[in-house]
Amino acid sequence: MIEKKGQEEAVGFVAIVIIVSIVLLFILGIVLRQESSSSTGSLDVRQFLESTYKTTSECSLDQSFSYLDMDGLLIECGRNSGQECLPSGEKVCDLFNKTFSTMIESAWNAGEDSSLKGYIAEIYYQTGSNSSSGNLIARFEKGKCGGGYAADEFIIRDSSSRGSIKTVLKICS
Amino acid sequence: MPIMEGAHGMKLGQIKIQEMAFILVALFIFFALVSIIYLSIAGSRLTDSVENLREEEAQAIARKIASVPELSWSECNGCVDLDKAMALKQQIRNTSESNLWELDYLAFEQIYPILPEEECIQSIYPECNKITLIKNKEDYGVTSTAFVSLCHWKSTHVKCSLGRVYAAGRSLK
Questions:
Q1: How many domains does chain A fold into?
Q2: Are residues A13 and A89 in the same domain?
Q3: Which end of chain A has the least Cβ crowding within 10 Å, N or C?
Q4: B109 burial type by CB count under 10 A (0-12 exposed, 13-18 middle, 19+ buried)
């Protein structure tokens, strides 16, 4: 009887150890997956956005051909999307979208054959009193995003409307 | 009989104590193993954080180099005056200054708009995409890089482009 009881206790102990091990491994897996999926703000991404919006576009709104910077072009796109650029005649929003996506492609070269697998860029318009993320006004996406990434945001103030435009760029590896 | 029963009871007690001792030892070893695994994973995450911080610090220094008075565009932060850079390149060549800012390598490269991949010289500037100011040795090691705006005068207007600064040297380590 005593031997049988000892065997029962040993089996019970082993079962408890196995169950606790499985639970701990499960929790460890969840914790590690969360760590690899997250990333703090990226200085490189922020500097890219800052420099991108200072870049001179190919759009002028008057005959003096004083070309807008990319941030000015985006603001004009928000104010009057039907406005046409000189000298190309393209709509301001079309030119912004084309230029912005080309700049991301040129700078990051994300793709299947690259170490960077994709990117997602989202542009939001926020009113002055809106403390949430705002209204999504443009989205650029390429490739696959899953796992590690570098991301940051850049805010442009629109003095005339007292709103702001927030650009969030996520580069995925 | 009572002695036998008493003796039997003592043996049973000793067995129980031994069982408890083995269980405690096994539990201790189990939790020690779990702690070792957790600490090794936490330690490797800390190493990654340190590496990220070092990289960001080097990026910040690379950008700061682009902000020195000899190279900066006065009207915006993080903007490089390409005309100044070309003049400085010529000056460095003429004076054979080799220890500027304790750097072994310093160069600017334009990313957008896309230009011919050529080293800039006076005869083709600004239709070229790279200006190498300092290159003290062929093996200058790993470069730190940061996004910057590259600006110059185009007739009567300012034109800024998206570019990168590359720097390597003792001051960046």
A1: 2
A2: no
A3: N
A4: middle
Residues A6 and A54 in one domain: no
Let me know: does B68 contact B84? Beta carbons within 8 Å: no
Mean pLDDT throughout A38-57?
Answer: 86
Domain residue limits at A21: 1-37
Claim to verify: residue A54 and residue A78 sit in the same structural domain: yes
Q: How many CA atoms lie within 13 A of A2 on its CB side?
A: 9
A9 and A25 share a domain?
yes
Tell me: ipTM over 0.85.
Answer: no
CA distance B111 to B109: 6
On whether any CB of chain A is under 8 Å from the CB of B38, the answer is: yes
Does A120 share its domain with A161? yes
Q: A137 and A99, same structural domain?
A: yes
| This prediction's pTM | 0.75
Chain A residues close to B54, C-beta within 8 Å: none
B111/A43 Cβ within 8 A = no
The pLDDT-based confidence of B171 (bands split at 50, 70, 90) is: low
Quote the tokens at residue B124. 């083709």
The reply to whether A103 touches chain B by the CB within 8 Å rule is: yes
Closest of A156, A154, A149 to residue A172, by C-alpha = A149
